[in-house]
Amino acid sequence: MRNLAWVDLDFHPEAVLGNRRALHPGQFTARDNLSGHRVILIEDTWVQGGHAQSAAHALKNAGADTVVIIAIGRWVDYSGSDRWRPVLERAPRIQVPRQRPA
């Protein structure tokens, strides 16, 4: 098994114009030269994919041969689609308290 390394990305909020969830190629830059490396990018939540794709863009610009994105969670917008109605009707209802107990 090959050694794994941590790659640091610098975040550039000024590069995010308009929709913050869209692809913004200048949003991140990699600190290291990744020529010849394969990278696994772990994303905690995937909504529209803009952050992960922007980070992948930075990794490719740094020379990575391959970038694979693994999303731990996925947000799906169920509104406006009747095909999800049977799933939603069977889904358990969870009550979330609005205030923390004292």
Describe what you observe in this structure.
This protein has 102 residues and is of the alpha+beta class. The protein has one domain (9-90). It has helices at 50-61, 85-90, and strands at 9-11, 28-30, 38-46, 66-74. It is elongated, with a radius of gyration of 18 Å. The protein starts with 8 loop residues before the first strand and ends in a 12-residue tail after the last helix.
Summary, kept brief:
The chain is α+β, with helices and mostly antiparallel strands. It contains two helices and four strands. It has a two-stranded antiparallel sheet. Strands 3-4 form a two-stranded parallel sheet.
Quick one: how many beta strands? 4
Structural class by sheet pairing and helices: alpha+beta
**Topology as a string of helices (H) and strands (E):** EEEHEH
- Helix count from the secondary structure assignment: 2
| Average pLDDT level | 79
**Sequence of strands across the biggest β-sheet:** 1-2
Number of domains: 1
- Describe the largest sheet: 2 strands, antiparallel
What is Rg? 18 Å
Portion of residues within helices: 10-25%
Distance between the termini: 51 Å
Low-confidence stretches: none
Coarse shape: elongated
- Beta-strand proportion: 15-25%
Topology record:
Layout: E1 9-11, E2 28-30, E3 38-46, H1 50-61, E4 66-74, H2 85-90
Provide keyphrases for this structure:
two-stranded antiparallel ribbon, 4 strands, elongated, 102 residues, alpha+beta
